[in-house]
Amino acid sequence: MERHDSCSEWPVERQHEDCLSESTQERCPVNFPVAVVLPAAGSGERTGLSTPKQFCRILGRPLISYTIHAFERVCWIDNIVVVVAKESHDMMADILHKYNHTKVKIVEGGPTRHRSIFNGLLAFSEPGVGPKLQKPKVVIIHDAVRPFLEEDFLLKITLAAKEQGASGAVRPLVSTVVAATTGGCLDYSLERAKYRASETPQAFIYDIIYQAYQQCSEAEFQFGTECLDLALQHCGTRAQLIEGPPTLWKVTHKQDLASAEAVIKESLSQSACIISGECTETQNLSIWMKNCLTAAGMRVDAIPNTERSMTLSASRNVIKLSVNSSDFVEIREMMKRCEESKDFLLYPVIILWVFLNVSDQVSLRQENDEASTIMNLAEEAKKINIFLYCVQLRYSKVSTEWERTVNRLCQLTMALIRDRNAAFTGQMLQA
Amino acid sequence: MERHDSCSEWPVERQHEDCLSESTQERCPVNFPVAVVLPAAGSGERTGLSTPKQFCRILGRPLISYTIHAFERVCWIDNIVVVVAKESHDMMADILHKYNHTKVKIVEGGPTRHRSIFNGLLAFSEPGVGPKLQKPKVVIIHDAVRPFLEEDFLLKITLAAKEQGASGAVRPLVSTVVAATTGGCLDYSLERAKYRASETPQAFIYDIIYQAYQQCSEAEFQFGTECLDLALQHCGTRAQLIEGPPTLWKVTHKQDLASAEAVIKESLSQSACIISGECTETQNLSIWMKNCLTAAGMRVDAIPNTERSMTLSASRNVIKLSVNSSDFVEIREMMKRCEESKDFLLYPVIILWVFLNVSDQVSLRQENDEASTIMNLAEEAKKINIFLYCVQLRYSKVSTEWERTVNRLCQLTMALIRDRNAAFTGQMLQA
After folding, report:
1. Residue B5's pLDDT band (boundaries 50, 70, 90)?
2. Do A177 and B171 touch (CB under 8 A)?
3. Using a CB-CB distance cutoff of 8 angstroms, which residues of chain B are in contact with residue A388?
4. B20-260 is classed CATH 3.30.70.1230
5. Which residues of B touch A197 (CB under 8 A)?
6. DSSP classification of residue A260
7. What pLDDT does residue B8 have?
């Protein structure tokens, strides 16, 4: 990977693969070192849950891991400093290990948000435990509880900070802001159009925000909430405000966790891959399904067999069609290949196994045995973050009946994919 | 029902039953007429959906119907005026009819929020189409897209408005509010603790807010967003600001619909009623289940048989235990009684039918017939908003195996109740 290297601090080699610059076949748009500070020492009392919200699980994975991953996949981001409360250190270390977050260093938080951020910044300047991190040109400050970040927005924020010294995401106000009298009555209300909600990510030239924090008063450390304001007050740097997408919203209350889960589930439900097998019946069924799922807005690939080179976890939703007999070997092979992909733990992969019965020649005993084999296989699969579901359907020569059955199959398929509910794995559903 | 009647405009008879004042065995806390104006003429462009968000469906029912119901169940609220865009009139009328909203009148909206609210207020003062509504002492103004309202908070707002002329819900700011320069840079930021987000409900002495709107300038009608401000500017009335619960939040973006659904689903998953039958096996199973579900935080009643007087829809989740044979008559009877309850369409009721197999003497043919009968019954049930699911389990004399089976049954039960997914009705799951 070539890059325009104007900065002597810049590491020459980068290993990360899914970089915007590469996917668009352009040179890397950032030619200076960039790091991230992620304050995550809050207790999350507003969620009303005992676990701080950054550690609440969505599809089995802690929220903070989603946020970390959003930065880690960006090739021009070098280091991520996560600032956590002392009592969360071990939990955080476990999360980094389990989800293979290799760019992250943990730093201990302070009693307030500003103290925690400053601690994070110090990791680049002062020797702590372990090796000192390389000082970045630009540092991004973000909330651990805003997991949805696109690389192009991070790029905007980063380049604006490089140019202007500071930058921050803003959003239109959802509610009018009012000031109260001491008696709790309306004093005045602000004209909504003139103001913005300040969100994160924010970015700063490292030396500016570091200097701002060094000059911070005790009162600012204790009661302040706005990093952009520190840069303005102490360094005279006026941050560029950049309108961010609605997905930047902050997981604040308990119901926001459900929103976050819905956003993630929706993004995992965009596409599916149907493996039709070689026989005519399943290939026909595959065409029906493809049409039906495509009409419902999914992108669907249909292929006769899995190829060795294919990354199953790329589509996240694999639909395997079988006639009568069930081929456990192939499912086991799929599971193995999902597990081999480096990010199999990040999001659950769905394998939906569809049995097309074209004859009645199946005895009850055989069915029961099969049901319990499938249940056990699904238990195994769940351990490696694969959700295995089964649907069976009976072929009918009556075309209206067959159409109804296939439609029901597609309804079930979409519900299973969108729902991604671990409780229903191993079940044999009827279409 | 007795009440202290100090207001001559006050209707003497009230029919509504689930009033706070009655449930707490006190006199009705409000002795003056109260009405509601619900502006719902917005296009909801921020959701990114083609349907305005107030008409988006949650568990099959439009969001606005939840908001209406939250007011309609309060006995001291007399009328609700819903203000909708002209093109939504017929859809709104259908919603009122389908969900039996009897206290509601539809009024046509204007081009801005303030115009729409004023139109709503005029319904109490000016003759329009149909009979003029009784003028209230206090009028509550609320957003159609904030469906979660408790009666006690409405009471606070209403009484404060009666005393002070105006009142409104506020919430702490989630983000710092900033002002931008004309160049899009940070001008200054507000001290977060001094300001509040103004939410709804808001309440006003009718004559005050009516007068305020009559004096409104064209610019205010066009760009204003804050009713409390109108009362202050035109009538000198300083609204009492009252801190509201986090559930007041506004469905603004697409992901908020998922939050709202999660909140509703959670409130429907608090309790269950197990109908154990008379035989020892199912009664034992009922005890196991009750313990397991109670440990997971549910309130569980276990009774041997349904009583004629029992309102099945009250618990929203009915678990019926059967041994071997399936008693369709009893399920049909349950369905009939759910349908008879006046509010069966408001929330889907779950009937979970658990089959305990204590013998292997079931032939495949019989199972297939049964499966299709259940599937058809579930289709019928869905039409009257009942979700029928089935789980079968096999009794085991090996205690560890039996324990595992019962645990799996409880996991499935909770997942089905919490998920309330229409796609899985009629399925026969295995525990």
Report:
1. very low
2. no
3. none
4. no
5. 174-178
6. H
7. 34
Report residue B344 as tokens: 């069966």
Which H or E run includes A213? helix A206-214
Q: How far is A50 from chain B (nearest CA, A)?
A: 15
- Picking from B171, B165, B139, B168, the residue whose alpha carbon sits closest to that of residue A186 is B168
B179 CB neighbours in chain A (<8 A) are 194-196
Contact A255 B241 (CB under 8 A): no
CA atoms of B197 and A186, how far apart (whole Å): 11
- Nearest-CA distance from B308 to chain A in Å? 34
Q: Indicate left, alpha or beta for A279 from its phi (over 0: left) and psi (-120 to 50: alpha).
A: beta
User: Per the CB < 8 Å rule, is A196 touching B178?
Assistant: yes
Q: Domains of chain B: which residue ranges?
A: 20-260, 269-430
A15 CB contacts (<8 Å, ≥6 apart)?
Answer: none
Higher-pLDDT residue of A243, B367: A243
To the nearest 10 degrees (0 to 180), the angle between helices B254-268 and B399-419 is 130
DSSP A24: T
ipTM value, please give it. 0.87
Residue B408: closest C-alpha in chain A: A423
Beta strands in A306-422 (DSSP E): 317-323, 349-357, 386-394
Side chain identity, residue B225: T
Q: Cβ of A197 and B184 within 8 Å? A: no
Architecture of domain A269-430: 3-Layer(aba) Sandwich (3.40)
- Contact residues, chain A, for B263 at CB < 8 Å: 255, 258
Query: Which has more pLDDT, B8 or B131?
Result: B131
CA distance B431 to B429: 7
The phi, psi pair for A148, rounded to 5°, reads -100, 100
- Tokens 């009392």 map to which residue? A45
Question: What CATH superfamily classification does A20-264 receive?
Answer: Spore Coat Polysaccharide Biosynthesis Protein SpsA; Chain A (3.90.550.10)
CB pair distance less than 8 Å for B430 and A427: yes
Cα–Cα distance measured from residue B201 to residue B189, given in angstroms and rounded to the nearest whole number: 27
Q: Chain A residues with CB inside 8 Å of B382's CB? A: none
Q: What are the chain A neighbours of B363 within 8 Å (beta carbons)? A: 364
Number of Cβ within a 10 Å radius of residue A89:
15
| CA dist., res. A134 & res. B211, Å (int) | 65
B46-52, long-range: CB within 8 Å, 24+ apart, which pairs?
A: B46/A246, B46/B252, B46/B253, B47/B251, B47/B252, B47/B253, B47/B254, B47/B256, B47/B257, B48/B253, B48/B254, B49/B254, B52/B85, B52/B88
- Which alpha helices (H) appear in A296-363, and where do they start and end? 312-315, 328-340
* Contacts of residue B368, Cβ cutoff 8 Å, sequence gap at least 6: none
The reply to whether residue A241 touches residue B178, judged by beta carbons under 8 angstroms, is: yes
Backbone torsions φ then ψ of A28, nearest 5 degrees: -60, 130
Lookup result for tokens 């349904």: B306
Lowest average pLDDT, out of A213-227, B248-262, B352-366, goes to B352-366
> What residues of chain A score a pLDDT lower than 70?
1-26, 44-48, 127-131, 308-313, 325-326, 360-368
Q: Of the candidates B168, B255, B419, which has its C-beta nearest A421's C-beta?
A: B419
Q: Do A177 and B176 touch (CB under 8 A)?
A: no
A304 SS3 class: coil
B188 sits in which H/E element: strand B186-189
